[in-house]
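seq/struct pair 1
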Amino acid sequence: MDTTTIVVFILSSMAVIFAVFARGDHESLGASYIFGDSLVDAGNNNYLSTLSKANIRPNGIDFTASGGQPTGRYTNGRTIGDIVGEELGQPNYAQPFLAPNTTGRVILNGVNYASGGGGIMNGTGRIFVNRLSMDIQIDYFNITRKQIDDLLGKAKAREHIMKASIFSITIGANDFLNNYLLPVISTGVRISESPEGFIDDMINNLRSQLTKTINKLTQNECVGLANELAQRYNGRLRDLLTELNENLHGATFLLGNVYDLVLELITNYAKHDSERGLLWQWRAVPGDHTVRANVDHLRRSTKHVFWDPYHPSEAANLVIAKYLIDGDTKYISPMNIRQLRDL
């Protein structure tokens, strides 16, 4: 692969994943820089005054690296970002940007900017009080980029970013669920702006964010309307990627069809050695005694598709990552991640 070429990988479902990597060889991945929402948050919201937090049990119960303790990941184990990085040879998990120990040479192993409740639109997730929007996450990456320049010098920093790193963005679900479709709070928005108009705004924001980032680097039940909006958005996203492929020379974009992949897991769960339903159904409890009482059961229940009503389990994330890395064009096109890496 030409070392001046940037490769961009995008997955779309209830969320969007965007990853960039350019390799001049096939050596192990050095770092992973992760942007997004609760599907890939590794603990940034632990350091925010927010109503969206995951640093409580039973989250993390199957996360080996923490000994089963919660880390701020909104699932029982690893996220899709964690698994893809591992499969591509990344030696360490990307650390949360807001963690106090994410300093010095630690950032060369990767940084995670994702935030539960975050979205493409800056107003998304305001119900949680605090969260990191995509724009803020990009601003934080620019801070990291300057720190890498200081650590390695500009020439080596550019080589690290362009040849030894993968960038991923998993975002978009909250823009529907915790913005446009939010009861009461967003009723006025839905009256004044049609679904197509809102999707236009999302696409325009995402276009600006992706272009800004690339240019910076080179220098069981489903909610009907939510699903309909996601499918419309995914169609528009495909058009956007075609546009960016034509206009951002030196960049290559892939599209991952995670919407259909998750639907496949839900519909044909037995085929994937999974079980229908939730691994853990969140509910109000008088304290954490009830949660503790269910821990042993949870340790035996590692095959469910969903960890809670909104987040896939580690078992599901493993299946999704497998299809994205080695799957066919039904789920990732025009090629899979491994084929892209080996160009």
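seq/struct pair 2
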Amino acid sequence: MPLTLLTGLECYGYINSKVKAYANMLKTNYLVLTLAVVSISGCSQGVANMKSRVELPCGDKPNCVSTQDLRKEYRLDPYVLKKGVTIVQIEAAALTLPRSKVISKTDDYLHITCTTKILRFVDDLELEIQGEKLLVRSESRVGYSDFGVNRKRADELRKILLENDLIHPDNLVKHYSK
């Protein structure tokens, strides 16, 4: 089989076509990766009109905490309100949590979303005043585990409510949780 020698111009054309093909492949891979990231983060947006789940226990995924759940890994100690506390005061305190936004509010209920910093996942924080207690539920919308983010958020909320003198300290809560 005879060997064919390419001229400089033919060699340049051959190499150039291979480089262009490789560049197009990289663009395609970049586009697919970009679409995947956007669709993943896009999934966690929305659900503005969800029904209140504050009284429900958490599901079986470790991405939720609630004052209404009796299982240790999901349970939050009660938040016992001081006399006369309103949802407006609770809202002002809760909105000091990072990247939080009110979705809906009534006289005794507040639905807030908190968005994670990097991947922009949305978690739902629901708060409801029932008598002298504040029901709290914080849950991730997507994923299996939240790596403790919702528990940390609930603990931070408790700290903020205590600093604003809206709830009783933990040592008094034991009396109310019986």
